[in-house]
Amino acid sequence: xxxxxxxxxxxxxxxxxxxxxxxxxxxxxxxxxxxxxxxxxxxxxxxxxxxxxxxxxxxxxxxxxxxxxxxxxx
Length: 74
Ligand code: FES
Hints:
Layout: E1 18-22, H1 34-40, E2 50-52, E3 66-68
Antiparallel strand pairs: 1-2, 1-3
FE2/S2 (inorganic) cluster binds next to loops.
């Protein structure tokens, strides 16, 4: 996606896919895996809704979700 670098291609080593996920009212997203959470603990400007977008599986439950990237990343 434009604006998301995702340099490592999803192997969870670069953090350049960090984003803030805002779910629609009825939306849901599985909790991050232990590995994803470990990496999220290292990102700059982490928030409660921080995720590695390379680990997000697009499902109908994400319809209407918003993915924002940190300003310094864009
Ligand atoms: S693409 Fe590198 S951590 Fe997600």
